[in-house]
Amino acid sequence: MPDFILQANGVSHQYGQTQALSDVSLQIRAGCLFGLLGPNGSGKTTLFRLLATLLPLQTGTVSIAGFDLKNQSSQIRRQLGVTFQSPALDNRLTVQENLRCHGRIYGIASGPLKSRIDDLLNQFAIADRRHSIAGELSGGLRRRVELAKGLLHHPTLLLLDEPSTGLDPAARRQFWDAIHDQQHREGTTVVVTTHLMEEAECCEQLLLLDKGKVVCEGSPQELQASLNGDRLTIRLRRTSELRTRLESFLNAESRPVGDRLCFRVNNASGDLQRTMAEFGDEVVSAEVARPTLEDVFLEKTGRVLSDDHEAKS
Question: Which partner from 37, 49, 114, 119 sits 20 to 30 angstroms from 254, CA to CA?
Answer without folding.
Answer: 37
